[in-house]
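Supplementary Methods. Inverse-folding protocol.

Structures were first reduced to a discrete structure-token string of length 151. This string, shown here, constituted the complete conditioning input.
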């Protein structure tokens, strides 16, 4: 893969990713509380809060954490949503596994799920979401290989 010159060093990106996580969590929680105060109910308030946090996280991570200079594209947003869903499902898998081992409503199980989510979300964001088009092409199999596998 090619190295983008405008990206901050990995250590700084990890710290920025964590800071963005704190900001989008605070924003999401504020939206949830506002929704509850406005009578939206648990489910709508929760969905609105997560949506607000996810959008803020995308915008902040895109520019500040990963220094993406790609033009605005729906594909970047779709990749971000896909990485979020994979990381969140991994979080739920860790929690389900912990529950099956007897760790019901355990803060340690929640912490393990959160760590799994954060690591996967960071790796997916840095290696798949916020990469240049040429880097994405390098990750894709050549068209001839794809055609051979379709037969």
């Amino acid at each position: 893969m090619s190295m983008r010159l405008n990206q901050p060093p990995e250590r700084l990106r990890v710290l920025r990713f964590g800071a963005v996580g704190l900001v989008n969590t605070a924003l999401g929680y504020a939206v949830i509380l506002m929704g509850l105060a406005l009578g939206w109910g648990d489910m709508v308030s929760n969905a609105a809060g997560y949506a607000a946090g996810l959008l803020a996280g995308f915008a902040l991570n895109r520019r500040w954490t990963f220094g993406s200079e790609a033009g605005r594209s729906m594909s970047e947003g779709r990749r971000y949503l896909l990485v979020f869903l994979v990381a969140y499902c991994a979080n739920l898998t860790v929690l389900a596994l912990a529950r099956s081992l007897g760790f019901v409503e355990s803060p340690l199980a929640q912490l393990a799920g959160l760590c799994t989510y954060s690591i996967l979300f960071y790796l997916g964001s840095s290696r798949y979401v916020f990469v240049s088009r040429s880097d994405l092409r390098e990750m894709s199999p050549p068209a001839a290989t794809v055609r051979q596998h379709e037969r």
